[in-house]
Amino acid sequence: MDNQEPRPVPPKPAAQPTAGLPQVAVPATAVEPPARKPRRVASTLLKTVFVVVLLGVVGGLVWLAVWLDSRAPETTGDGGSVIVETSPTPLATPLPLPREGVEPPGYRLGDCFKDFDAEALRSTVVACDTGHSAQLVAVFRYPAVGSYPGREALAAKALEACQAAKLGPAANEYTLNFQRAYPSSTSWESGDRRVDCYVTADGGNVINASALP
């Protein structure tokens, strides 16, 4: 044992051996992308505001269309308008009263009639604060162009006119009835397009005030 020579120590390798070992790449320093979350939130907020404004505009346009449509004259299958005249339009120069021999085309909304007969060809128009038996309280006018709607359709339209009539407080002081008048096929061919609604009193010329407001 004493005669053994010491074993030489091998020199250290210049670099650690890599043979047979897995190659692991050293990751490069990661570069963080610019923060986009705040930008995305801002973009979403702008989109939300835009959508809300757009919905508000659309809603306003829809409301305006409905409002305009509610004010526009509606048409019916018979070519007429559902607008019924219920408020008289004063003349710049009032016509003298009384006026005798007035024909139906000359009747004006609000006129009061003495000894009224709806089938008469002429009537006497008087002041509404004097004795009278009828007053024209609603008028419906068909378009000038169109075929004769028929008696039933005209009667129904006259009923609509009477239902639309707006009576004032004075009407409650009398016993009044609604009376309708509308064109015949003959008068229609002559250009008569008006449907009238009257209030009448059975007792003769007992009304001394306008039935309209």
TrEMBL record:
Keywords: Membrane, Transmembrane, Transmembrane helix. The chain crosses the membrane at residues 45-68. Residues 1-24, 74-98 are annotated as: Disordered. The keyword Zinc does not apply. Residues 15-24 have a biased composition (Low complexity). Residues 108-197 form the Septum formation-related domain. InterPro entries: Septum_form. It comes from the Bacteria. This is Septum formation-related domain-containing protein. The lineage of its organism: Bacteria, Bacillati, Actinomycetota, Actinomycetes, Micrococcales.
